[in-house]
Amino acid sequence: MATADPARPGFALPLLLLAGFRTLIDDLHTELAREGHPELRPLHGFVLQAVGADGTTATELGQRLGISKQAAGKTVDRLVAVGYLERVDDPSDARRRLIRVTPRGADGLRRSAEIFDRLRAQWADTLGPERVTALEDDLRAMASANWFRLDVPGWFGG
After folding, report:
1. What does the pLDDT look like over 21-51, one tens digit per residue?
2. What is the pTM of this model?
3. 3-class secondary-structure state, position 138
4. SS3 for 125?
5. For residue 90, what are the β-bridge partners?
6. Domain range summary for the chain, segments of one domain joined by +
7. In principle, which of 80, 101, 130, 137 could form an S-S bond with 105, CB 3.0–4.6 Å?
8. C-alpha span between 29 and 37 (Å, rounded)
């Protein structure tokens, strides 16, 4: 049986993928801070996405993120304190409180999307547009069908 190329050990691939992800996320947050969102952290993007346009409850949010209701509540508390989320009465059930994205949270999400487009363009300038497109196509081919998952915080934690 052939051995792995010592210059390219198998464990390096996930570390390089993580390093690329980390580079993009760090660059995103540097730009977000410059554009008026210094409070946002990598976890917060998953939370804002998981809350969604219609809002959600703390229990549902925890399930979507793959974390406990208590952990979700703590993160929500932080995002409410800095103005990205709000708690409101559920119009369909007075016993429940909904968590919703505020205009500031929506602005953070909008700016994130714009910044990601700029970062992708920077990668294309450095690597060439064909290589970035090929990289994306290759990653889609290797990733599971449900590659966009919001439960990454819970998966990493546990």
Report:
1. 999 999 999 999 999 999 999 999 989 999 9
2. 0.87
3. helix
4. helix
5. 93
6. 22-157
7. 101
8. 8
